[in-house]
Amino acid sequence: MSTATCQCSSIDYWNNSYCVALLYPGQTCTSSSQCINASSCISSICQCNTNYYYSTLTGQCTYQLSYSSTCTLGNYQCLNNTLCYDLRTSPTGTCACDSTYYYYDGTSCTAYATYGATCAAATYGPICDSVARSLQCIGSQCSCSSTTYYNSSSCVSYTHVGFSCTTSSQCVTNSNCSSGICTCLSTYYFDTTTGNCVTLLTYGQACTSSVQCPTNMLCTSSQCLCTSTTYYSSPNCVSRISYGGTCSLTILCDTTLGLVCTSSVCQCNSTQYWSTLSNGMQICANLRTLGQSCTASTDCTNSATSVTCKSSICECDSNAYYLDQATVTCQPLEALGVACTATYNFECASFNCNASNVCGTAISSTIKSNVSQASSESCLRRPHNTMFLRMIGIYLFFFEL
C-alpha cells in the first residue's frame, strides 16, 4: 500500500509551521525557497532569475522573448541587449537589438566592435560600429577611412592644412600640428588643387611655383634651381663660400658678393677690395681712386706700390711718389739732374725744380757736392720736409738770379 507526503501547494512554501504564499519579486525574503518559481532571494529581495522578467499578466517570472519576438509590455520582456521597438506607435512591438548591438550568429545580440578591435566581413562579424563610430573593417581591424581619424569616440574628418589643431593625429596625411595649425611636413608642400600635402620636387624637376621646390631652391625658368647665394651639391643646395673661405671647382664662392676663387681662397678681384657698408653688409667694392675716402691703404688703387690711405683719403705715397696733376697718377719722385716742371716744384726727390726745369741743376760744383751729400741722407727726402732743405732752396733761387 503506497503512502503520500503532506506538502504545500505550488504557490505556497513551508515556513516551519504552516504553508504560506510564495513571495513575489520585490518582496523581502530570507531564502530563495520563499520566492515564486524562476526567481531567487538576492540581497534579501525576491528577484526574477537572469533572462526572466515578471509578467503582470501571469503573475510569474517568465522567460524573456528572443530576437524578433512580438512584445507588448516593454523592453524588459526582451532578452538582454534587445529592445521592444515600435511599442510606442502600436499595441505590439518587436524585440530587436539595441542600436549599439547587432544580431550575432543568429542567437543573440552583441555589441559592435570598437576602434582597433578584430573584425570580419562575414554576416555574423565581429562587425565594426559603422553607425555610432563610423568605423570600417580594414585588414581585419576596425579602422577609420583614409579621410578620417579616430577622436576617442568616433571617426571624424581630418583637419586640412591651415586650420587649427591640438594634435598631429588630427591633420591630413603628411602634415603635423605645428603651433596649433596643421602644416605640411618639411619635405612636402601644399597642393591647392588636391588639398593634399605632396612630396617636394627635386633639383632640376619641372615646376610651376617655388613652393614646390625644396629649401634654398626657386622655380626659375620652370625648373627647381638653387638660389643665387647657394649652389647644388647633391642632393641639396648649399650656401656659397664667403670672403676668405676655401674654394675649389666644386666648392663655390658667393658671386653675389663679387667674390672669385683665387689660389683656392674666395676673395675680391684685383680691381676691388672687401668693403663693409654702412648697414653692416660686406661686399667686394671697386678700389678707391686718388682723392676718394678710405679706411685702409688696401682700399686704394695701387696700394701695393704708390698709393696710401692718409687722413682717410687715398693719396700718393709722399716718400717716393708725387701726384701728376696732368694725368692724375702717382709718379716716382725725380732724382738730381732729371728734368722737372718748375711750376709744380714737387717732382724732385730731394731738391727744388730750378728755373732751368731741372732738379737741383745750374749751381756751382761746390754747392752741387753739398747738395749731393745732403740728398744721400735718408732724412732729407723732400725739399720742404726740413729747415735745412728749405735754406738750400732759397740759396739756389738767389744763385740762379
UniProtKB/TrEMBL annotation:
Domain EB: 15-53, 144-189, 194-230
InterPro entries, per the entry: EB_dom
Protein name, UniProt field: EB domain-containing protein
Organism expressing this protein natively: Rotaria socialis
